[in-house]
Design brief:
The chain has about 350 residues and is of the alpha/beta class. The protein folds into two domains: about 240 residues, Rossmann fold; about 80 residues. The strands form two sheets. Strands 3-2-1-4-6-5 form a six-stranded mixed sheet, with helices on both faces. A four-stranded antiparallel sheet has the order 7-10-9-8. Strand 1, helix 2 and strand 2 form a beta-alpha-beta unit. It starts with 11 loop residues before the first helix and ends in a 9-residue tail after the last strand. About 5% of the residues have low confidence.
Length: about 350
Amino acid sequence: MSAAEDATPISAAEAAALFDDLRSAPALVIAVSGGPDSTALLVLVARWRAGGKRGPTLLAVTVDHGLRPESAREARAVKRLATQLGVRHRTLRWTGDKPVTALQEEARRVRYQLLAAAARGAGAPYVLTAHTVDDQAETVLLRMARGSGVSGLGAMARQTLLPTLTADDATRKSGAIVLVRPLLDLPKQRLVATLAAMGITFVDDPSNRDPRFTRPRLRALMPALADEGLDAQRLALLARRMRRVDATIEAAVDAAIDVVSDGTWSECDPIAIDAEKWRRLPAELSLRVLGRAIDRLGKEGPLKLGKLEALHAALEAAVAEKIRLRRTLAGALVTLSRGRIVVESAPPRSSKPA
C-alpha cells in the first residue's frame, strides 16, 4: 500500500512525534475551520497535550469569513468540539466588504492576519495549520502553472514565518509568529480515518469543489496525474528536493555578496555592488544578489520574479555595454554608473497631479 493509499488512523505515538518539538512553547494557536483536516488537527493536538503533565496552553481559532450562510453555525460546532476536548476556542470574523476578484487570496491574507493577532494576544509563538501532503501537491502544481522558480517549487515548509501583513513597525517588533504545518507529510485519508475511528463529524465546505477557483480545478486533475505516477507523494518529493536546492543556492548567494560588495548591508544605507564582478557570477546568483538588495531596501511589498528577471537582463546588458542605467522596482532605486550598481530606497512617489 502506498502512502497516498494509507487510510489507517493516526496513533497517539505518531501524534507525539508530530508535536513534541512544540512541547516547550507557552501556548499554541490551532487554526480550525471545521473541515476534516483542521478538525483532525484539533483532536490530535488535544489528545497529545492531555497525555503530558507539562505543555503549552491551547487556543483553537476559527475564522468566519462570512462568505457562506452556514459559516456561523459551523464555527459554533467547532467551539462545541473544542470545549468537549478541553480546549479554549475563539471565533474571529472577517467584516467589511469582500472583493469581487481574487476572493480566496484575500480571504487567505485576512485569515493569517487574524490568526497572527490571536496568537499575539494569547502569547503563542506558533500557529498550527492542517495542511497535508495533498495540499502540498496542489501547491506544487499551482506554482508550476504560474511559472515559479526554484524557491516557488519548494512549496510549503513545515515551519515558516507567518506573512507580515502590516507595515506597522510596532507590530513587527512585537515578535514574529511561526506558522507550523505538522501534518504536511500525511495524506488526507489518514485524517479522515482518524476522525471516523473516533466518531467525530466534520464540515463539508462546497467551495473546495467550486470550479471557479484554481485549487479545486487542480484537485480534480490529481487522480489522472496519479494514474501516470505523478501522485501527491511524488509532487511533495519534488518540493523537498527544490527546498534543498534552494537552500544550497542561498548559501552560495551569501558567499557571492562578500565577493561583489563589502557584505555589510544595512536596512537603510545604499548598497554598492561591483558591476563587473556581479556580471561574472552565474546568472542565478547574480539574479538573487540583486533581488536580495532590492528586498532589503524596497518598500513596496513582495518582489515578483518576472520583473526581477527583466531588470536583471537590462542591467547585464548595460554593464556589458558600459552604459548608465537607472530603474525602480518594488520601491527600490537601482542605478548603474561608473562600474558600480547602487541599490537604495526609492524616493516617495509624488501625489501631485501632472
